[in-house]
Amino acid sequence: AQSVTQLGSHVSVSEGALVLLRCNYSSSVPPYLFWYVQYPNQGLQLLLKYTSAATLVKGINGFEAEFKKSETSFHLTKPSAHMSDAAEYFCAVSGPGGGKLIFGQGTELSVKP
Amino acid sequence: SAVISQKPSRDICQRGTSLTIQCQVDSQVTMMFWYRQQPGQSLTLIATANQGSEATYESGFVIDKFPISRPNLTFSTLTVSNMSPEDSSIYLCSVGEGGPVEQYFGPGTRLTVT
Q: Which 8-state DSSP code applies to residue A102?
């Protein structure tokens, strides 16, 4: 069975500071991993994905994530937070071939001026 | 990526009634999914709807409560039947495309049951 755990339901950073959102996964098969962002009253937007190629994945809006098999982690980072980054972030996992996504509980990111 | 629209965007319904949510995609896609996002919660897959076959429901979701249609490769509907306040959620459809399958989400339908 697959599962995802996001550490920290709320993360607050200052504008310009490093953003680090944590995601750990459990999977008995090589996983595909995704980060999505949800702005208030909107659907989900794909930020980036890991598909067993490069372990460091770059996404949109300056975000990136590193797949670490030994740590079963896929943490999301951004060097410098912007006010517009304030949103809910979801980590998700699927098995080979895609299909069903299993989501973490989400992390709400707040950015202080 | 595909452009996905949903109707209605929001609705307030009385308990015991049913609501049908539409999902329209601007291109043909094989895989469509329906998710539920309860207030303050994450997303949970309700069912997978592939054209030409019966929808596949996840544990805890049944066809009588959430009937799904998938008449063609660009459209699907989800009906929430005999609603109760516990059905108040955001319902999102998504489509799978690319390989490995990425999913792109519609804007969601915000349902409130009174």
A: E
Q: 3-state DSSP call for residue A96?
A: coil
Instruction: Please tell me the distance in Å from A97's CA to the nearest CA on chain B.
Output: 5
Unique residue bearing structure tokens 């200052």? A14
Non-local CB neighbours of B2 within 8 Å, separated by 6+ positions: B25, B26, B27, B29, B95, B97, B104
Q: Under DSSP, is residue A9 helix (H, G, I), strand (E, B) or coil? A: coil
Alpha-carbon dihedral of residues B112, B108, A92, B60, nearest 10 degrees? Answer: 50
The CA distance from B83 to the nearest CA of chain A, in Å, is 22
| pLDDT tens by residue, A43-101 | 899 999 998 778 899 999 999 999 999 999 999 999 999 999 999 999 999 876 667 89
Rg, C-alpha atoms of chain B? 13
3-state helix, strand, coil split of chain B in percent (to 5) is 5, 55, 45
Place of tokens 């209605």: B8
